[in-house]
Design brief:
This protein has 15 helices and no strands. Helix content is about 80%, strand content about 0%. It has one domain.
Length: about 325
C-alpha cells in the first residue's frame, strides 16, 4: 500500500473533468444516461479515495466542512431550480403557480441533485469505513467483496425471471443497499493499492470485454456488472496511463477540476435555457448543440463561482 500522504494526483483531476463531461452529455438527452453512468461511479470512488485516504477523519471537520458544504450547496441549488422552474418560468408563461410543487421540489431537488443525498450518507459512514480499513486492510477488501456480491452480482441475477423469487430472502438480509458504499470504499484501494503490471492487464482486458455488452445492451439484467468493471478499468487506466508533463497543462487541469462540483450543480440550468431557446425536439444535431452549449457555459459559470471563495465554499 502507498502512503496516504501524497503529491497532487493529476489523474484524479482528469477523471473528475471527464466524469462531469460525461454527466453533461448524459443529460443532453436522458437516453444517453446508461452509457455515461460510469461517471457517477467514478465520482463516488474519487470521493471515497480522498476521504478515506486522509491520515484521520476529524469528526468536527467532517460535519462542519465536508457534510455542511454538501448540504448548503444542495439547499441553495435546489432553491434555484425550484424557483426557476416552478415560479419564474410559470410566471413568464402565464401558467398557475403551485406552492406545494415549489416546496416539494425544494426537498427533492432537481433530478441530478440526488447525488448530494447519496454522498452525504457515505460521508456520515466514512469514519466507520476508515476505522475498518485502519484496523485491518483486508477487512476493507472483504467489505468490498460482500458489497459487490450482494448489491451488484446477486441483484443482476434476480433480474432474470426464473430467479426473481430470490429477491425476498436477500432483500431481507438488507445488503442490497451497499452498491455505492462499494465504490466509495473501493476508491481507497484504487488510489492506494499497487497493482502489478500483469494484474493491470487483466483489468484492462476485462474492461475492454465488458465494454461491448455495456454499449450494446444497456438496461439489461447484468448492466450493473458491466458498468462496474468498465468504471474500475477507467479508473485504473487513468492512474497508470495519465502522466501530465507540462506545468501549464497541470495548472489548467487542476483549475478546471476545482470547478467540477460547481459545474455538476449548475449545468442543468443551461439545459433548461437551451430548451427554452431551441425547443425540445431531440435530434443528433440538437443534442450535440445542447451538449456544447451546456458544457461551455457550465465550466465558465463554475470557474466564476470558484473565484468567489467565501461564497463558493457554501454553494459549490
Amino acid at each position: 500500500m502507498k502512503d496516504c500522504k501524497r503529491d497532487h494526483l493529476y489523474y484524479i483531476d482528469v477523471l473528475r473533468i471527464a466524469s462531469v463531461v460525461a454527466v453533461i452529455l448524459a443529460h443532453a438527452h436522458l437516453e444517453y444516461v446508461y452509457y455515461m453512468y460510469w461517471s457517477v461511479l467514478v465520482f463516488t470512488a474519487i470521493s471515497g479515495a480522498m476521504m478515506l485516504g486522509r491520515e484521520n477523519i476529524d469528526m468536527r471537520r467532517l460535519y462542519t466542512h465536508s457534510i455542511c458544504r454538501i448540504v448548503t450547496a444542495f439547499v441553495f441549488w435546489s432553491a434555484v431550480y425550484s424557483l426557476l422552474q416552478n415560479l419564474l418560468l410559470p410566471l413568464l408563461d402565464g401558467n398557475p403557480i403551485s406552492v406545494k410543487l415549489i416546496i416539494t421540489s425544494l426537498v427533492e431537488g432537481q433530478y441530478h441533485l440526488w447525488y448530494c443525498y447519496m454522498i452525504t450518507g457515505l460521508f456520515i459512514l466514512a469514519p466507520c469505513f476508515k476505522a475498518v480499513i485502519d484496523k485491518d486492510i483486508h477487512l476493507g477488501l472483504y467489505f468490498c467483496l460482500v458489497a459487490f456480491v450482494f448489491s451488484i452480482i446477486i441483484p443482476s441475477f434476480q433480474n432474470i425471471d426464473i430467479l426473481k423469487w430470490t429477491a425476498t430472502p436477500t432483500g431481507n438480509i438488507g445488503l442490497e443497499g451497499l452498491r455505492f458504499s462499494f465504490y466509495f470504499v473501493m476508491g481507497y484501494y484504487l488510489v492506494n493499492y499497487d497493482f502489478s503490471a500483469s494484474f493491470r492487464k487483466i483489468i484492462y482486458i476485462a474492461g475492454a470485454i465488458f465494454l461491448i455488452p455495456f454499449i450494446a445492451f444497456p438496461n439489461t439484467a447484468f448492466f450493473n456488472v458491466y458498468e462496474a468493471v468498465v468504471a474500475i478499468a477507467i479508473f485504473v487506466a487513468a492512474r497508470y496511463l495519465i502522466d501530465l508533463k507540462s506545468v501549464r497543462l497541470k495548472k489548467a487541469v487542476s483549475t478546471l477540476a476545482d470547478s467540477v462540483f460547481s459545474v455538476y450543480l449548475i449545468h442543468d440550468i443551461f439545459n433548461i435555457v437551451y430548451g427554452r431557446i431551441f425547443g425540445r425536439e431531440h435530434s443528433p444535431a440538437y443534442d450535440i448543440g445542447k451538449f456544447c452549449f451546456t458544457l461551455i457555459l457550465s465550466f465558465a459559470a463554475g470557474l466564476l463561482i470558484r473565484k468567489c471563495k467565501r461564497v463558493s465554499s457554501y454553494i459549490s
